[in-house]
Amino acid sequence: xxxxxxxxxxxxxxxxxxxxxxxxxxxxxxxxxxxxxxxxxxxxxxxxxxxxxxxxxxxxxxxxxxxxxxxxxxxxxxxxxxxxxxxxxxxxxxxxxxxxxxxxxxxxxxxxxxxxxxxxxxxxxxxxxxxxxxxxxxxxxxxxxxxxxxxxxxxxxxxxxxxxxxxxxxxxxxxxxxxxxxxxxxxxxxxxxxxxxxxxxxxxxxxxxxxxxxxxxxxxxxxxxxxxxxxxxxxxxxxxxxxxxxxxxxxxxxxxxxxxxxxxxxxxxxxxxxxxxxxxxxxxxxxxxxxxxxxxxxxxxxxxxxxxxxxxxxxxxxxxxxxxxxxxxxxxxxxxxxxxxxxxxxxxxxxxxxxxxxxxxxxxxxxxxxxxxxxxxxxxxxxxxxxxxxxxxxxxxxxxxxxxxxxxxxxxxxxxxxxxxxxxxxxxxxxxxxxxxxxxxxxxxx
Amino acid sequence: xxxxxxxxxxxxxxxxxxxxxxxxxxxxxxxxxxxxxxxxxxxxxxxxxxxxxxxxxxxxxxxxxxxxxxxxxxxxxxxxxxxxxxxxxxxxxxxxxxxxxxxxxxxxxxxxxxxxxxxxxxxxxxxxxxxxxxxxxxxxxxxxxxxxxxxxxxxxxxxxxxxxxxxxxxxxxxxxxxxxxxxxxxxxxxxxxxxxxxxxxxxxxxxxxxxxxxxxxxxxxxxxxxxxxxxxxxxxxxxxxxxxxxxxxxxxxxxxxxxxxxxxxxxxxxxxxxxxxxxxxxxxxxxxxxxxxxxxxxxxxxxxxxxxxxxxxxxxxxxxxxxxxxxxxxxxxxxxxxxxxxxxxx
Lengths: 446, 346
Fold this sequence. Notes:
The complex is a heterodimer of chains A (about 450) and B (about 350).
Chain A: E1 3-9, E2 16-17, E3 22-27, E4 32-36, E5 41-44, E6 56-57, E7 64-66, H1 68-73, H2 122-144, H3 159-166, E8 174-176, H4 182-188, H5 192-199, H6 232-247, E9 253-258, H7 259-262, H8 265-276, E10 281-287, E11 290-291, E12 294-295, E13 316-320, H9 324-339, E14 345-350, H10 369-376, H11 380-391, H12 396-419
Parallel strand pairs in A: 8-9, 9-10, 10-14, 13-14
Antiparallel strand pairs in A: 1-3, 1-6, 2-5, 3-4, 5-7, 11-12
Helix pairs in contact in A: 2-3, 2-4, 2-11, 2-12, 3-4, 3-9, 5-12, 6-8
Chain B: H1 3-11, E1 17-21, H2 22-36, E2 40-44, H3 60-64, E3 69-71, H4 76-88, E4 92-99, H5 107-114, H6 117-120, E5 130-135, H7 150-154, E6 160-162, H8 167-179, E7 184-189, E8 196-200, E9 213-216, E10 223-229, H9 233-245, E11 249-255, E12 258-260, H10 264-274, E13 277-281, H11 289-301, E14 310-313, H12 323-329, H13 333-345
């Protein structure tokens, strides 16, 4: 073989490619060969890379796998809608990619004062992902014991996304979430105790026991709601963006939603409005590949939700949703863009839920055990842990300590929920409206 | 001149008042509120420079600009959901649907999000949003532009449903709606838009929800009947009452002004005086406001009734275009007069 041509790139420019993953298909005079990546990195396909089907000699450079720093410096990762690609900001050209903190923070690092960090704090990201995982596993056990009533949709396997996006938000920024929202709630500042108590239906829950798993609220920290209806969060986040644009309050809003919502009319209407009015909104599609049990591939011809962004005139970004660093970087760019008044971004985080759609539901017939096992092997927590271990900056003992602390926090949350009182039944009709018949605003009678 | 107008004139003589149309009164109220509170914005089709299909925002774009008079794409679900999120985060949207028929595309957002957010957050999030639109029969607007729909919203917790019948009420109820921290459905009958009346210049002209207006009191002679009239039916019933006085029929006319909340107390007081009740509503009869009023009166004031409660509604059919067909669906003058006679004489 002396020459070959590219049949197809299996990865997109800017996409993170793991060592061993299939990268592209090359046609030689003998056969079509899938070429795997010999090392991990962000794919860069330079402008002078040969076009598909063009025969070139062996030794021609087709592309490169870059380090994160190099990728960021080139305006990557993974901008699909090229015409609207955000320009690399000055800070992006000098990224801080080395874990900055080696010590674990206090167990309950106060979310009330948490501010987004300009540099990535891998230990905090690790801690938050572990918190979501262990609290949810404890809640799943509680569900089996009958202590959680009604539905319980876990976020297990998807923790990197909420963790990385919320790391860029203050408590004044708002997020609007889905039925799979425990992770968003925790990452935005709901405590494990408040979450557990809400699922237990107790008065100490973050919605006073009114909501349960699907309806979590804590407006005091910007958790404006998780929802039992697929799609509206996109519109509500757009509206929060409208308030910020109108009142110039400097906030951004985030809609978290799944691949299921991307086929809903709310997606089209909300993204269009946010784009045309340049609103400070980040749309985060957590593509876990199944809308309940319907495979995304069977209901959408376009495999990348992010590509739809181009239709609305906003950047669309695909990231590996199980790589917290990749999501963190994509969110950094999107949040910065929104705060600077450049408008919305659609981030598609490819991921997978490794537990059933809802606790107690049969999880067979629509996906294979092999597939689930594959995604379990791509656990975002273990992936970051392995990265940190190999980089040697954060001692493994530090991570172990975090694990133990979070286990204790989860135990404490369940104990707190169990010990909490039930809501007073006589309050069931409270807060339907704020007005009273016959009264004027403020309670005056005319 | 109605009793209501006379009262308004005497009580507010110090502040001053002007005669204006119903749509002008609503617009004046909106203008005053937008000048007072910069977090108020309006969305709708053609409500910007054009000033609204029904002139609801005429001249306001020049004063407040595009961010506060926001023309939107034809995406009712989208902008209702968007405005709900805006209301929940500190602004005060007014959604102008033009024809209220278009609200139907947004029902899921309205019912599952707009009306429930305050409750679901345990009172920690407020949703101050006004949803206004023109409704009702008339003008050969045909099947997709002639609906009423208000009982839907009165059926659900979380909504105020306001149906002003006079220019003064259009202004006072709209200002009240805008200042309220909850969703208000504000409906203007197309047939009322150019009606005229005296409206106070009081910058705090507010009409509370759930307070009915007795538009015509008993004269004290003749056979008595209470007629509850909704929105555009009020002026028609008042005219019928004038006609039927010559026949010895003494009509007390109640305008609930809001059907959610419903001022059943004023209706029951009237029934205690008259013993007879007719509800006139251009919307459909089944599961409608008449059914609700009748059920509550039977439940709470059965002993005062001297005759069966009657309802008069538009025909239970979709609305056709051609004027003779449309007229057949609407409540005619003779139907109205006969319905009042039957309520009195059985």
